[in-house]
Structures are given as C-alpha cells and as structure tokens.
Amino acid sequence: MSVVRTIQRRLMGLAALALLQPALAAGPALAAGPALAGEGVRLDDLGAVSVHAADLSAFPLWRDALAAFESWLPEAMACLEARCGDLSLVETVWLNHVRGLTLLPPDAQARRVVGFLRDLLQEQPDPPASSRSGPWPAMPDILAGSDRGGLALALARYYSLRAAGLDPKALRLVMARDTLTLETTHVVLVETAAHRIAMTRYGMEDLDRGGRLSFVPLYAVNHAGRWVYFPKPALADDPASSGSD
C-alpha cells in the first residue's frame, strides 16, 4: 500500500507542476496571481481557465488605475453638467462623446469608441517594459497626451466603454502576445450574450466570425477581481474555437 501511496503522491505532484509551469513561464505577473487550488476553477472563453480572486492585490497597478477612474468619472460628469469650467477642451469632447453612446448596443459602442479614439488620440509606441515605472496612466493624462502608448490606448477604450454605460461584467482587459510582432499588447475584450469583440491595436475583431486572431491571450483582469489565466490559447485555426460565419 505504501508503494501505491507514493506513486499517487508523485502523480499528484506532477499534475500540480503541470498546472503551474505555464504561469511561471509567462512571467512574474502571472506567477504573482492567486493559486489555482481551491479557487473555483472554471472553463472560460478562448479556451481559458478563470480563477476568482478576492481582490486585485496581484495587480496593484490595475487596481489603482481602476479606482482612480471610478473616482474621477462621476466628478468629471458632474462638472460637465454644471459647466464648472475645470475641464479641459479634450476632456469635454470625450465626456460628451461617451455620453452619447449610452443607448447603443455593445458592438456599436465598441466600434464608435475605436473610431473616435483613433481620431482623438494619436497612438505612440509603448516604451520597453523595463523602462515603464510608476502607475498606469489615468484618463485625464491620456487625454492630455502625456501617455499615448498601447497600454494607454487600451485603458482609454476600457474607460470609454465604462463611461458609456456598458456593464462592467462584460469587459476585460487582456494582456496578450501580438502574433505579428511578438510584442506584449493589451486588448479590451467585450463579452455579452450577443457579442464577443476584441479591441486590439489594429481595430476590432469579432470573435464569433472566425478569422485569425492577431493576438495570443496570456491573462486578463476585470472590475471585480477576476484573474483569468490562459494555459492553452484558442486560435482561429483550432476547430474547437471557431465561431459561426
């Protein structure tokens, strides 16, 4: 019996190592995420494993950026209504635009946001990861032009959809690998009962219409402490991940 138990323990150890290995290989941000055991692992979209965390302590930069946005937005909207004069011209333009999107369906909101921000913001290359320090850019800073990199653009899209009234449960910020440049990229994922849309640096990709994705997802976060880990990214040429035409 002791031999059987030893073999069972070794098999369990190998299984645990197999689960942890992709997270460790993906970098320190993944390794810092919550453990898989006991967290209610479930199959998620794009062939992912979704793990619920009690908070976003594994992602302090995201948590701080989200808290700053959720504090700033109602104050900015109130200032817009009261014409208090404290808003910059570009902030006023952005607030008026997102306020006009509230009655549109999610796919139309996403399409309008992509086009509007492309005109409003001129995207710049992200600095190397080693040179980025400090907090993630806040929406006023992005609008002011102090940061127009890929991360800032993804955050601006996320913030714009939140400000337009899209249910935060339908939104995720995805850290991914660009399949064309092999660089780290940031994608906003919109998931509702009727739509699955990826907002990438190249525009919009409808995940339910086939076609090759321009990114391989690594992990993602949302507003409520959801930590999503992608051990086997689903690509468009995978029959299990193909959507309907």
TrEMBL record:
Gene3D superfamilies: 3.10.620.30. Keywords: Signal. Residues 1-31 form the signal peptide. It comes from the Bacteria. This is Uncharacterized protein.
